[in-house]
# Entry
Amino acid sequence: MLDDNTKGQLAGYFERITQPVELIASLDDSAGAADIRELLTEIAAIAPAKVSARFDGQFARKPSFQITRAGQDMGVHFAALPMGHEFTSLLLAILWAGGHPPKVEPEVIEQIKALDGEFSFTTWMSLTCHNCPDVVQALNLMAVLNPRVRHVAIDGGLFQQEVEARQIMAVPAVFLGEESFASGRMELAEILAKVDTGAAARDAAKLGAKDAFDVLIVGAGPAGAAAAIYAARKGIRTGIVAERFGGQTLDTLAIENFISVPETEGPKFAAALEQHVRAYEVDVMSGQRVSALEPAPTPGALASVRLDNGAVLKSRTVILATGARWRNVNVPGEQEYKTKGVAYCPHCDGPLFKGKKVAVIGGGNSGVEAAIDLAGVVEHVTLIEFLDQLKADAVLVSKLKSLPNVTIHTNAQTTEITGDGQKVNGLRYKDRASGAEHLIELAGVFVQIGLVPNTDFLKGGPVELSRFGEIVIDAKCHTNVPGVFGAGDVTTVPYKQIIIATGEGAKAALSAFDHLIRTPQVEAAPAATAASPALVG
Ligand code: FAD
# Structure
């Protein structure tokens, strides 16, 4: 199962284990169980003194296995053969159980250890889901650090009956006990914020007490990260506040057009962005949502950025880099059946519709790519495009048209996603030429109609937005408000791409610096860095 190269790498990693680890499996006579036995046996043979495997576990769900420190009962379980995207989750769980320290801030470790209560999590995932490992790893880490946290990661493909019974149609789907806890990608900070009820108030107090920044960046995608690095390299007091570090790149599978990096994966790229930012003196505040911006009342005074938890951050300049999110189709049924058949990530959720019929709404590049991908997994794909022709690149369109299990409807307006109360069972569309209504029976609908800028928190405020809701900027990333800059997908700059967003982020930081050196400060930033006094006009 593991090739020699992988075994060699694992042998290197296992040298970091300081306390023996046990892999305890509970197997049946299924093919999946045989694979798990083979994998665990091979892993244990790599470093027998450090990792052992036994097959006498008594777990209700078979096949499954536990990873635990010898002599303890750590709640890390896989009901899966954790290969593919989950292989790293397996390796990390073994290393953490073996005493290797996780790369997490000490206060987060303390927060996990101090969690009050019993938490029994289940994550439903698929091995092709690139959004699942973050969730699996976060919950595994919590289970390693706190004996009152239990976590089982289940491969939906291996437990189809349970998937059907629980009506799971999007992964990762996390349950706490029998209750649905979350679905979609989540970071450790978000999970902790949900289970640690006192955390928001503690965060607000800490954030509100911070000294003013010279540059505060809102958003930590490629644009925000580049802005932070450029600002910090000027020696000015820089902060970055964001919901998710990495932004859309976290939802991207392969990136092949970031010049000088021939190929990488989205989550890997996001991790590299964060590592690069943290190499500088930047105050990183992730897991925080911004709800309002109040620009400086007079030039040189401080702007205020309000967070959802009530804290207010102050800064002499603000760079808005809040990017974009999936656009909703806004028809009846979409909200009701989200994660119950309405999906946005074909790579993640495609395998759950194996052997079933699905539709893709949207005939641009992302819609056509999704339809091509899904056609290899599901029984049949219907592609619905509002315009009278597909807008995707010709090469993609001709590939799509060559597939035997794809039907294309152009000039078709989706009017409803139908369901049986539990899950999606169809899609209604209107032929825009004839006005005729049609109903297609299917199990899933993938919405791929582009992105919408994250500017809700700016609506009604002084920052000018275009009719599409984008922040209007000039060639130097200035908005109409002095001291407030925009960068990346959230702005009017055309061609929403990573390399463009990073360039715009750099430009916005240089413009912010230019503004700082030209604008006399009317209200001192109390804890300015050593370089900052030079900026005070
Ligand atoms: P984003 O990446 O959207 O980041 C926005 C940041 O703002 C995030 O940190 C977010 O959490 C934060 N944020 C938003 N609202 C708030 C708020 N209210 N408070 C606090 N924080 C907030 N581009 C390529 O070049 N190559 C590709 O192969 C590629 N593939 C893609 C595949 C997919 C599936 C998608 C969705 C996009 C892809 N793109 C690709 C586009 C690329 O990801 C974007 O152009 C790029 O990420 C934009 O960067 P950004 O920093 O402007 O915004």
